[in-house]
């Protein structure tokens, strides 16, 4: 699985960079793991990017998963009302592993 | 749960209530006048009345009120269940069913004035008494209180909350607006996101970092000031992207609750002192509490997804078995357990979608009552096996064919009372519905004890309409099959059945479309019987795995009669190059699957191939020639149309244990394509 580590600041310019990175990785093929553990600041654009990536994985042939998320990402997802959609798998995995 | 959800549940409960009420009414008609039977009807009508009031279906509420009042008098023994009253109850039930159809938007509002007058007349015959409606707490299946309670618990906030919707404008992000900041401010005011719509965010190929795709609906407590909420959105570029309003939702639900509560008695009357003596109220003797069913309602899409996933599991398990077997591990004990568990899981998943055929049979009494009224015939209905279950989709799609068969039996089969008496039969004809499992299929029969099919008349009409040649020699069975020919109808059918747009050919098409078959048995003077053999599910099929050239195909077992290997001189060629084989006196066409589907490398010499005798509804019997039979197994059907496109001669596809895709042959289509003209005409 290829890993893409998200920038600490996911503002619009950061999101633009990360979106391009993701598209490039998609072209290369193979599963993609998104590491958002180091994200310190994230806005709606960042949340939407993560949602877009997961949707791309769900609807396409390439597996795309969020493999880690920082507290900032968790808080932003909660405020947006998309915790389950964005972090559901991560939370489930955390429950399983205790 | 939204008001629409609750209304949807109310509609379902109406249907279930109508079904149980109708069953009880039929029992009463058959002589069962016990209290619980009346109570069943009363409960259903009362339940519908409650919901009708809550949702503002006033005509239905008004009608059920009268109907319920009459039932209450019957229940209390103030009115006796004589035949005229039973007929009145049956008629009132029909009007009630029409009302329910109307509120669902599936029919016209019925004109119930005549029936209401009849109900009032019947009520006036009862001795005057204190109003007794809903005088006891009933075990209602439609528990609107529970639903309201759920809503109350869920909202758990004072009246007049705020509902705020916020859909950022497309350019908000690009202009420095950050919706998350606004959402955080609303959260600080006690706001909670009720819904967001992440589905609007596109996949990466269409993703624009500057676009705001999402929007939200939030609920804020009534304690928040409107001005404070408005301040949050001061810097939003498009004020139209925000709405702030009091919650109409809760208001509507509170109104509904009040209506329900007002329709309930102020105090329960079923105290020992108020309880009437048993002798005066024979029908009210038993009042058992209806058991609360341990059931939940599940979205059908979720069930379909489950069945689909189980199908995938079956395929994967099969592939695993094959892989292990090829590595010499076929005897692994755990593999046998996995196989067993997978099969059980598949059966259980299928069983979730199964419904009793009763839901279809329950429509028949009304159809028969209408036909009795319009034809002057008298019909007794006998039902057997109504608890037999089959797939919900099959249930939904057999309603129309079954209705037509019933009409056909009453309209054309059962004679008028005078004619029956003259023949030494009882004046009342018998219509029998039955359902039973036979192997992996369910057989639904509709039979009557009427005149049977008039073969001479059928043949004359078919000849007259050019459906068969004038000099055609047909067996009795072939003549009976003519009623399924497109364009066939008798003169009486034109007068009585026309306008409904359904003929027996459509009945057969509908049954075939479900992967089923329809057969007739008829004896002159004794009656006819139509048997519908239907698959239990549309998701799996029992098939014979065959090879043709380098391809593997599945032939559904339902079509297969036998397989054989002929000697070289047994298969004969006709002048046109077609080949036929004499199978016990009948010459059947031999159709090479390879030729039919344009394959190369298939065995072309019948004596070196395997011949499979198949039966079809549309083109009689035929023989399919394949290279070899590989196996016989259940396969999971994958729609070809969904994943690719429709292919002539192919009904679908499946994935075999070795991972290869095999096409499931459409035997009807294959044979019909190549059937000789006389054979096609005759059927």
TrEMBL record, chain A:
Domain of life: Bacteria
InterPro entries to which the protein is assigned, alphabetical: MlaB-like_STAS, STAS_dom_sf
Pfam families: STAS_2
Domain MlaB-like STAS: 9-82
Gene3D superfamilies, per the entry: STAS domain (3.30.750.24)
Name of the featured protein: STAS domain-containing protein
Organism: Sphingomonas baiyangensis
From TrEMBL, chain B:
Keywords in alphabetical order: ATP-binding, Chemotaxis, Kinase, Nucleotide-binding, Phosphoprotein, Transferase, Two-component regulatory system
Residue intervals of the HPt domain: 1-103
Phosphohistidine sites (modified residues): 46
Top-level class of the enzyme under EC nomenclature: transferase
GO biological process: chemotaxis
Entry's EC annotation: 2.7.13.3
Record's keyword annotation contains Kinase: yes
Keyword Glycoprotein included in the entry's annotation: no
Listed SUPFAM superfamilies: ATPase domain of HSP90 chaperone/DNA topoisomerase II/histidine kinase, CheW-like, Histidine-containing phosphotransfer domain, HPT domain, Homodimeric domain of signal transducing histidine kinase
Gene Ontology molecular function, alphabetical: ATP binding; phosphorelay sensor kinase activity
Catalytic reactions on record: ATP + protein L-histidine = ADP + protein N-phospho-L-histidine
Domain CheW-like, first and last residues per copy: 540-676
One Pfam entry name: HATPase_c
PANTHER family in the record: CHEMOTAXIS PROTEIN CHEA (PTHR43395:SF10), SENSOR HISTIDINE KINASE CHEA (PTHR43395)
Role noted for this protein: Involved in the transmission of sensory signals from the chemoreceptors to the flagellar motors. CheA is autophosphorylated; it can transfer its phosphate group to either CheB or CheY.
Name of the featured protein: Chemotaxis protein CheA
Native species: Sphingomonas baiyangensis
């Amino acid at each position: 699985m290829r890993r893409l580590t998200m920038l600490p600041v996911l503002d619009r310019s950061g999101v633009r960079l990360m979106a391009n990175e993701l598209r490039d990785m998609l072209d290369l093929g193979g599963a993609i793991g998104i590491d958002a553990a180091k994200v310190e600041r994230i806005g709606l654009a960042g949340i939407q990017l993560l949602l877009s990536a997961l949707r791309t994985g769900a609807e396409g042939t390439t597996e795309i998963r969020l493999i880690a998320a920082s507290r900032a990402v968790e808080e932003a997802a909660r405020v947006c009302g998309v915790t389950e959609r964005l972090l559901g798998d991560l939370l489930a995995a955390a429950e399983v592993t205790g | 749960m939204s008001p629409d959800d609750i209304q949807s549940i109310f509609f379902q409960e109406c249907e279930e209530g109508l079904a149980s009420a109708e069953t009880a009414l039929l029992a009463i008609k058959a002589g069962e006048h016990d209290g619980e039977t009346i109570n069943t009807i009363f409960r259903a009508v009362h339940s519908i009345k409650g919901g009708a009031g809550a949702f503002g279906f006033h005509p239905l509420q008004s009608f059920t009120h009268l109907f319920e009042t009459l039932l209450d008098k019957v229940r209390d023994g103030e009115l006796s269940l004589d035949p005229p009253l039973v007929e009145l109850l049956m008629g009132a039930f029909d009007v009630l069913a029409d009302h329910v159809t109307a509120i669902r938007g599936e029919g016209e509002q019925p004109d119930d004035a005549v029936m209401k007058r009849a109900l009032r007349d019947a009520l006036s015959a009862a001795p005057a008494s204190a109003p007794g409606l809903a005088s006891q707490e009933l075990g209602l299946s439609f528990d609107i209180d529970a639903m309201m309670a759920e809503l109350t618990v869920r909202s758990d906030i004072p009246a007049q909350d705020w509902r705020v919707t916020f859909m950022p404008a497309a350019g908000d992000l690009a202009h420095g607006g950050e919706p998350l900041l606004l959402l955080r401010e609303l959260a600080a005011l006690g706001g909670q996101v009720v819904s967001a719509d992440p589905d609007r965010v596109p996949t990466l190929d269409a993703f624009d970092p500057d676009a705001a795709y999402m929007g939200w609906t939030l609920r804020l407590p009534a304690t928040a000031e409107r001005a404070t909420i408005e301040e949050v959105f001061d810097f939003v570029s498009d004020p139209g992207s925000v709405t702030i309003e009091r919650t109409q939702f809760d208001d509507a639900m509170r109104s509904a609750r009040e209506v329900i509560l007002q329709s309930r008695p102020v105090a329960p009357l079923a105290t020992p002192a108020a309880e009437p003596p048993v002798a005066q109220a024979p029908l009210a003797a038993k009042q058992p509490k209806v058991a609360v069913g341990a059931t939940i309602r599940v979205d059908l899409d979720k069930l379909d997804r489950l069945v689909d996933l189980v199908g995938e599991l079956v395929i994967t398990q099969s592939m695993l078995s094959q892989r292990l077997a090829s590595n010499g591990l076929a005897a692994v004990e755990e593999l046998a357990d996995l196989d067993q568990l997978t099969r059980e899981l598949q059966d259980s998943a299928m069983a979730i979608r199964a419904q009793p055929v009763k839901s279809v049979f329950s429509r028949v009494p009304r159809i028969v009552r209408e036909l009795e009224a319009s034809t002057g015939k008298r019909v007794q209905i006998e039902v057997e096996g109504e608890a037999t279950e089959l797939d919900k989709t099959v249930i939904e799609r057999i309603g129309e064919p079954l209705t037509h068969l019933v009409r056909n039996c009453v309209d054309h089969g059962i004679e008028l009372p005078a004619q029956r008496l003259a023949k030494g039969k009882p004046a009342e004809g018998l219509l029998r519905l039955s359902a039973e499992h036979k192997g992996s299929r369910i057989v639904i029969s509709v039979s009557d004890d009427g005149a049977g099919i008039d073969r001479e008349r059928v043949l004359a009409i078919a000849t007259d309409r050019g459906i068969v040649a004038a000099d055609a020699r047909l067996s009795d069975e072939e003549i009976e099959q003519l009623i399924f020919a497109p364009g066939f109808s008798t003169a009486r059918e034109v007068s009585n059945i026309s306008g409904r747009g359904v003929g027996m050919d459509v009945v057969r098409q509908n049954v075939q479309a479900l992967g089923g078959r329809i057969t007739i048995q008829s004896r002159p003077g004794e009656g006819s019987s139509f048997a519908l053999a239907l698959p239990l599910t549309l998701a799996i099929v029992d098939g014979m795995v065959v090879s043709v050239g380098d391809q593997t195909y599945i032939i559904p077992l339902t079509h297969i009669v036998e397989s054989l290997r002929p000697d070289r001189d047994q298969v004969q060629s006709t002048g046109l190059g077609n080949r036929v084989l004499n199978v016990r006196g009948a010459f059947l066409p031999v159709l090479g699957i390879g030729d039919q589907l344009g394959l190369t490398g298939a065995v072309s010499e019948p004596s070196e191939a395997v011949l499979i005798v198949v039966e079809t509804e549309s083109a009689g019997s035929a023989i399919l020639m394949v290279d070899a039979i590989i196996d016989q197994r259940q396969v999971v059907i994958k729609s070809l149309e969904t994943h690719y496109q429709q292919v002539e001669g192919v009904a679908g596809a499946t994935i075999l244990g070795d991972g290869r895709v095999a096409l499931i042959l459409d035997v009807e289509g294959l044979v019909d394509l190549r059937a000789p003209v006389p054979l096609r005409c005759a059927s």
